[in-house]
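If you are new to this repository, start here. Below is one unmodified record pulled from the training split, so you can see the exact layout before writing a loader.
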Amino acid sequence: MKPLQTSSGDLNADRRADYAEMLHADGDHAQAAELLLGALELVPRWAIGWFRLGEFQESAGALELAAQAWTMALKLDPADRQGAALKLQLIGMAPATSGPPSAFVEALFDHYADSFDESLVDKLGYRVPELLDRAIRTARPGRFRLALDLGCGTGLMGQRLRPIADRLEGYDISAGMLRRARAKGVYDAVAKADLRDFCHAGPKADLVTVADVFIYVGALGHMMKMIAGLLPEDGLFAFSVERLDGDGEFVLQPSRRYAHSERYVREVLAANGFSILSLESTVIRQDRREPVHGLVIVAVRVPDA
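And here is the target side for that same chain:
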């Protein structure tokens, strides 16, 4: 995927944009937006600039102007690698969708790949691999002939699975993440794949893990059906979601991550032939010094009958 143009390509515009960022950081959002708009007059086709303008306008409370800026960002980058459509949804200027654009997820994780482990584990107290590992070992002690780690990232889950898997394969949408995962040497094979249309040509797996991936998926039915097809009867499926309190199904949060309710997760699992073996509600990481609550689940594929 072609990277986004982080520089405008014009030195004067870049200087104005840098100063606008300083004003924004100091809380002068309206002045920052005005200065960045001046920079965009010099480089009107700079998609990231328009996206940032929308964020400045949003912080200033000018939601109509923010929507105009994000709409322009989408026009210039139809793949939506910045996630402008999600921002429009969050301010009520676009209809809700079942999930984010794949290009946004790919660009996001390519950007964070080199600092991902340190940021997530050391600074945010990320616990999902540890929690899933414990839940899997409790549900089924012993080894797995083939384990598929979907959305494997840099291999944090793979490091936990390696001691209990005869063969371990990792798949992720981000080439940057896969480069880090490959360097750890915990997988027998890694490959780039968009999980929304994932298919596996090999034999059925004994275990499929999806650690902290569904936070970038809204409606889960399609992926649950795909995962059910990867497993034989009695195969295990271990995953996590951010927890949505209440009776809704799922919601896009200001973080541009999705949260799912326990009721919805239970329903979509049952509809796709899974029975829950364990479900733990717990803190899965921190975000802006606040605990993020999630669900850690192990389910088993039951006979079609």
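Two things worth knowing about this chain: The first strand starts at residue 144 and ends at 150. The radius of gyration is 21 Å.
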